[in-house]
DNA sequence: AATGAATGAGGCTTCATTCAT
DNA sequence: CATGAATGAAGCCTCATTCAT
């Protein structure tokens, strides 16, 4: 009689470990043995739950992105005005703490790899799309309240999320010209451009 | 009578092939044998010119980026007004033709890999910095001519190049919500926000 | 109320499945998981009834051969003359129907494997010896009735069973020069040579 | 500048080793590492000349059979009468010396495996067919000289080669009822039945 | 009596690297 | 300068076997 959700538990355990390793050494150097060790299971167990290494990696990418989105939910539930909310959202995306850093690194791997793998592109679209939608909704609310200037909110959203992604890459690459503080201010500068008046 | 610079030629031949393969299969799947084949040389020859695989890849990244910048020079030499020049620069960066596509794909690999390798971060900074400087200079010229609004031109430049990078990734990932046309318009929308008045 | 001999039933169920798989994929590719599936039990159950894979295989070989002999009994009980009986015995051994085909395939695996494993040689001798004895008895009866020429009946038996085995292999290998009909006629030609006159 | 026929040499070296290992441990237990060791090369070299293990094994089967046929040629060139020649051919096929024993063991593996692999069936037919043809030719010559009785020589040939194969299996399985001497006499008994008068 | 999750040793295969030519 | 045969370390994956339930 199998314990309930042993499978779901074990899968998460493995995927979480895969993200850690992915962020640490990159896709190129990821070894399933290392993932197994990080997850505290045997290499055989990895293959008991996932057919191939590719499957592990793809699932890890998905796991990383959905986790990332979950962490945004609290912000939306707060009672701030839309412009502040945008700043909070950006703030939450900054590659600041180790958790966020890990997420970004995994993301960068997904982007590089996703260029050649349709399934990964779907993962990106499914979850990145939600992120874009969230920003769009906040902008739309801002427009209704007269806080955000006229214009296509989807376009504004794409501008912001695109900029966040691009700047984050430079931060992660330790560019001397783009640190955390600069990234925050640069993003807020764009939000400032969105403001009415 | 041996031609001078056979070595330089051979190096370029190999690096060019490496970029092609890198864009095609990604760093994870890049095999020196494949690079050798694409370059029309033997695997032994690769190692005659480069110590290790890592050396080939790093040199290929550098090769890709310097090539990329070269292609911007003609725009700067033109006689357009700064705002039009910015649009042209953005246009030249769109992942539109196969050459540009290849460059972007290699770039994405560099970003993912550069997160862990200092030498690659230097490559990024050296060449990415130039790109940022070019944009900054154009913006500054625009401000001098009263075409671009007040504000730190470096910040404006970071906004634009960051957005270009972020949006390009989505285009390369075939996001249904971000195609070439949309990317162009979105970038131009930002340039519009920079305009005085 | 537990049925008696559940164990014996389960064993047969497993061995029967093992023969099916053995004939289908060969010893080299036989996986206990596949046997378990074919038997409709779990992999754990296989090991509940058999210590090792080798044990399963050996038992399956024995199971295959004893099954095979059982199918000859009805012929011996019939009221034909010995020469006809020989023809019937040969006929019953032809790799004609799927059941017979499976038995032959398992047999071929036994031969290849038995070359290195004494226990399998004993299995072969125990059951193959019976088959030889049956043929010998029929030949001896034929001699008593003056239908079979003088000579050592054991030698005649060895000639016939040897020929049957050798030809069967070629039939099973789909040799264009040895089909079922040809095998039947070739064997009967030998029986013809045994006939008195 | 590659030495001439390094490739052919190396291939034979590997295949010869494969046959040794095949005879010794069987297909089921054949490890490429063991073949490599027996051939005195690295495991990498095996894969430099053969794509997969399956390719090595198939080539080894072919190698074994063509080698086997070569060893018959001298008999045909001799000046004996056809009946003696048949006895010599049989004699040369007896699993008597270690070389012949090895060939038979490899053959048994081929038969078991060939049941499921078309390419191996072709190998069998190509080379087994030649063996059958040789025997047929000798029998035909015997008929021309009045030494062999009337009848289809192909049928006679099939009788003999079939019997040889079947009896050899029992010898190889160490059947107490079929040793080398008995096999020789049993085959000669059949040849005796072929004799005119 | 039976299950199936988990293991881990070991095999095939890949591929960067070497080196004799 | 260049080759390509050869290497061997290392990775993915398989699968017989175990054991808690």
UniProtKB/TrEMBL annotation, chains A, B, C, D:
The keyword Transcription regulation applies. Residues 31-50 bind DNA. PROSITE patterns: HTH_TETR_2. InterPro entries: BetI_C, Homeodomain-like_sf, HTH-type_TetR-like_transc_reg, HTH_TetR, Tet_transcr_reg_TetR-rel_C_sf. SUPFAM superfamilies: Homeodomain-like, Tetracyclin repressor-like, C-terminal domain. It holds the Pfam family TetR_C_6. It comes from the Bacteria. Signal peptide: none annotated. The keyword Transcription applies. Keywords: DNA-binding, Repressor, Transcription, Transcription regulation. Residues 8-68 form the HTH tetR-type domain. This is TetR family transcriptional regulator C-terminal domain-containing protein. It comes from Saxibacter everestensis.
């Amino acid at each position: 009689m199998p314990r309930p959700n042993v499978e779901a538990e074990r899968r998460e355990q493995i995927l979480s470990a895969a993200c850690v390793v992915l962020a640490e050494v990159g896709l190129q150097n990821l070894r399933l043995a290392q993932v197994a060790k990080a997850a505290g299971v045997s290499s055989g167990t990895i293959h008991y739950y996932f057919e191939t290494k590719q499957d592990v990696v793809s699932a890890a990418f998905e796991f990383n992105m959905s986790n990332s989105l979950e962490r945004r939910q609290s912000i939306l539930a707060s009672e701030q005005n839309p412009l502040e909310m945008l700043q909070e959202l950006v703030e939450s995306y900054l590659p600041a703490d180790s958790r966020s850093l890990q997420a970004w690194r995994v993301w960068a791997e997904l982007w590089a790899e996703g260029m050649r793998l349709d399934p990964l592109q779907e993962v990106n679209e499914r979850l990145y799309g939600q992120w874009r939608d969230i920003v769009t909704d906040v902008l739309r609310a801002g427009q209704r309240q007269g806080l955000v200037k006229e214009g296509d909110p989807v376009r504004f959203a794409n501008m912001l999320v695109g900029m966040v992604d691009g700047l984050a890459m430079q931060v992660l690459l330790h560019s001397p010209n783009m640190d955390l503080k600069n990234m925050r201010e640069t993003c807020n500068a764009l939000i400032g451009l969105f403001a009415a008046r």
